[in-house]
Amino acid sequence: MKSEYNSIGKNIQRRDIVEKLTGQANFCADIALKDALSLKVLRSSRHHAVIDKIDVSDALKIPGVVNVFTAADIPGKNLMGIINKDQPLLAHDKVRSLADPVALVAAQTDEIARQAIKVINVTYTDLEPIFDIEAALAPGAPKIHKKGNTLFTRRIKKGDAGTAFETCHTIIEKKYMTHAVEHNYIEPDAGAGYVDEDGTLVIYASTQNPHYDHKEVQGFLGLKDDQVRIIQAATGGGFGSKLDLNVQGFIGLALYHLKQPVRYVYTREESYLATAKRHPFTIHMKTGADKNGKLKAIHIRAYCNTGAYGSYGIAVASRSAVHGTGPYEIDHVDIECACIYTNQPFCGAMRGFGAPQMAFAHESQMDLLAKKLGMDPMEIRMLNGFKKGSINGTGQQLIDSVGYPECLEKIMPYYEEALTNWVTEKTTPFTKRGIGIGGMWYGIGNTGVQNPSTARIELDQNGRVILYTGCADIGQGSSTILTQVAGEVLGIAPEAIQLVVGDTKFTTNAGATSASRQTYISGNAVKDAAEQLARVLLTEGANKLKVSKTALSFGDHSLQIAGHPERSVAFDWLAKRIHEKGVSLSWQGYFDPETIPLDLETGQGSPYATYAFACHLALVEVDVLTGQVSVKKIVAAHDVGRAIHPENVIGQICGGVAMGVGFALMEAFEFGKTLSMKDYHIPTCADMPEVIPIIVESVEPTGPFGAKGVGEPALIPTAPAILNAVSHALGKRLYSLPADLESVLQASIDSGHFGPEEKM
Amino acid sequence: MADFKYIRPDNLPEALDFLWDNGQDTAIIAGGTDVMIDVKSGKLDKKYLLDISRLDELKGIELNGRDLCVGSGVTLSEIYTSALLASNALALQKSAVNFAARQIRNIATIGGNVAHSSPCGDTVPSLLLHDAIALVADKKGIQHIPMEQMATSAYMSSLTPQQIIVKFILTPYQDGYADFQKIGRRKELAISRMSMAAFVKKDSTGRISFLKLALGACTPVPCSMGAVEAFLTGKVPTRELLWEAGGLLAERMIEITGNRSSTIYKKPAVQGLFMRILFPMVGS
Question: Which pLDDT does position A40 carry in this prediction?
Fold first, then answer.
């Protein structure tokens, strides 16, 4: 089939692929600055304590120690946080967790810096620490922050759930628990910096949001816009944790005082201790349906433990509440999700912002309802799933691009085949097979808040196109996709576009690389910029070629009369002429998705302009004698609106499945116990199932060429599908993640599979 | 990084000479997959690092009459690909299948795995199964140490600082059923939570005529399970009998370890893993 597009939908070579494959990409740890000092932070030795005194005199005596900084050395505002500012760069009055930074050492070598932090003497007065939600909410509990231990509660109220439950034929009410999870990106957090000739602090960062870093560092140091420059270095993954300022603030503070190059590269251990985790959730979910399986009412009370600081906790609570219904139409909704402070190291954003935790619960509920009603799991999802015209829990009508039914339809043949032939096939003794479905929806962009992106496109006098974007490509491929969008508008090959990415001296804010928002939001901003440039080119082309603008089309760096390529005018000629006329060759693009903020009491509104949908089918084998689970296959159907780069979409799906396998079966970060990768298991390639990705394109009219997003959706349905499959295999359900060896073997024992005879 | 001097002798006598004088201050490195972790963390407090990875005297797998000899410097990858081991020590060969990950298998050695004395060393149960004897050398001579005596407790080897394991001498098992399996938190690159090696022979009447069984990662030092061997020998293996034997194995394990928090899982899992390994003996 011939595509109507030149660039969109094409698997062009990724922008950074040669550098990455040949080892030439410069990650922060590779940036060699002459005479760079090493930085190292002393972290709290207490969970919760008042700092009485910090004595750095012994550290300063060590040869090679250049200086030691504390909160007193921060000239500006010592608080950070993208949503709520509650986290000091360096602790000043008290510490709230073992990850809290207390003092910053600058020394000639890493080794000297490590020695120095050992001899900094901090005197504390201990306060009672709180680790779990119950203790944090108990009457009279010590307050971790002045405002109390509840950071935020998102409420979604629609209809009358209480009354509706009375009329329900079947009600399922369960409690679900999930664990803290570490992002475990391959590149631990790192940064480097120097002071430019004009006094600008230049900071290289491994980051998902350079323009936010810029504002935050300015704030700490009380500097003006142009006195700080953040450059995003090659970034080896983020998954949400590089949305926080991990080392950028320390680099800035040291540069401010020392005016000498510095670097800070976290060890894996420090990255584990000091950076955000996925929020552990406790979810009480009650779902009611009529006798035909039509969902009537849902009641959810959920709590997420954000640890010592908010980070993205408010966004996690808010998004998880909105997504609590799952991709299903329910008239009566009563949801509350609270984000609670404790003295654990802080939790923040991680791929999905609470939606993966919630999906585990709502998809388990769907299977439980189906079983109780004697329905097929696919049938109950088909019956209740969002379709065009559906109204979600926030009262928003889903008008276009609702590909959930199509995702289910694409999965159906695999489901039926697996149910009929695979599950029933004879296997090795004591191995039980099961299959499971996981569905999801995911709002693209931030929840009910304005989150615009900007971009700039420039045509130089030689006819070359340069795209400036603040959108951090952290390995997910946004740079490639943005050039495809611009190239499509301007009729040029994406490879021919020069790119300037994530450098606050040259780029403008594209918002965070998070919330699966960059393709949709920054893609639209780039498209807007490219269209503005296209307009002036068309005007000047029409002048030159003496035809109407509608008769013109873009060729290879030229405009031509459609059907007459010999009658054309090149971009460089046009650029000179436009410039001579005093018209700009540099155009700014802007896009902010249409949202309506959620009402604080009822949660009604339009939190997102568009949603992605997906359904996964998992095929698993459970060893009933040992509790080992092997995921054999995942079929993953994703409605992405339009796949601008299909291979990239498939890459996201496969990566998401890997992360989902980990979330489902093995990943559990234990604060204080999990120190490094030896204590923490993410799946290896040996644990990976066969993945069959299916791209569904339910075109989004407001998206760039119809595109939405896939980054987080890729992960969300995997764990629910696997857990439903394990339950199918054993006839016994698990309500906690991960489904590790212990809990699966216990389920096998409880369901009577553990024994010398094989139970059918 | 730890501060030490790196030494690479050309042959075994040179290595033994060096150890005779400096053994106390020396860490021996073969594949390095355990030592390098201590080097990086700064825990290695030795003056010297003696690299024995290229000593020819520690290489090779060969069958000399009734002695199956495996050099201590043989890598896990070499064990995995050895046809000689596949036909004479299948359980040992299988213990190399999922040992750590491929990169580690390519450099980690069997001698290092044994000398490290981790309770979870994956080659140890199979060596116990084959009544392996370690041939251990120092400057003054050779000593033969049975596998049971190689480790005194978790991470404590019985080797003196002057000694190097040269090779292991195994009793080869040809016709019979052999297996090694392990349980980890993921399929590769996971420390064994439990491992088990077994060798079984049945006579013409279907009775178990010979059984060897060894358990790893459950006790401070991997151990043979004589009580279970005695219980099953001479009997026709049925599902119920194997299940009972698995229960006995779990009891034996708890006798050694006492009840720990991990026992809740390990007790049934030992029984289950035993069943899974021995089940092919039922019927056929």
Answer: 98
Q: For chain A, what percent of residues have pLDDT higher than 70?
A: 100
Asked if the Cβ–Cβ distance from B275 to A430 is below 8 Å, we say yes
What is B177-281's CATH number, 3.30.930.10, 3.10.180.10, 1.20.200.10, 3.30.390.50? 3.30.390.50
Q: How far is B47 from chain A (nearest CA, A)?
A: 19
Q: For residue A669, what are its two tokens?
A: 């970060």
Please, what's the largest Cα pairwise distance for chain B? 63
Task: Tell me the torsion sign for CA atoms A104, A100, A186, A517.
Answer: negative
pLDDT the model gives residue A225: 96
Please tell me the predicted confidence (pLDDT) of residue B3. Answer: 81
Instruction: Quote the strand ranges of B77-163, DSSP E.
Output: 133-138, 141-146, 151-153, 156-157
> Which DSSP string do the residues of A393-435 spell out, in sequence order?
TTS-B--S---HHHHHHHHHHHHHHIIIIITTS--STTEEEEE
Range of lowest pLDDT (A306-310, A555-559, A718-722): A555-559
The pLDDT, as a whole number, for residue A1 is 44
Contact assessment for residue A713 and residue A608, using Cβ atoms and an 8 Å cutoff: no
Residue-level length of chain A: 760
How far, CA to CA in Å, does A184 sit from each of A29, A204, A237, A688? 17, 21, 9, 17
Q: What is the DSSP letter of B72?
A: T
Candidate from B187, B268, B275 with C-beta closest to A684:
B187
Reduce the DSSP state of residue A554 to 3 states and report it. Answer: strand
Q: Are A466 and A500 in contact (CB under 8 A)?
A: yes
What is the percent of chain A where pLDDT is above 90? 98
- Asked if A589 contacts A527 with a C-beta cutoff of 8 angstroms, the reply is yes
Q: Which CATH architecture has domain A281-446+600-750?
A: 2-Layer Sandwich (3.30)
**Sign, Cα dihedral of A315, A317, A322, A323:** positive
Span between the terminal Cα atoms of chain A, in Å: 48
Peptide bond just before A738 cis, omega within 30 deg: yes
**Residue B41 pLDDT:** 82
Q: CB B276 to CB A625 under 8 A?
A: yes
pTM: 0.97
Q: Which amino acid is at B257?
A: T
Selected for mutation to probe chain B from A109, A677, A741 (highest B CB count within 10 Å) is A741
Superfamily the domain A31-127+184-274 falls into: Aldehyde oxidase/xanthine dehydrogenase, a/b hammerhead (3.90.1170.50)
Convert the pLDDT of each residue in A50-81 to its tens digit: 999 999 999 999 999 999 999 999 999 999 99
CB contact under 8 A, A741 and B193: yes
B284: confidence class by pLDDT, cuts 50, 70, 90: low
What mean pLDDT value characterizes chain A?
A: 97
CA distance A618 to A361: 17
When pLDDT is averaged across residues B52-70 and rounded to a whole number, the result is: 96
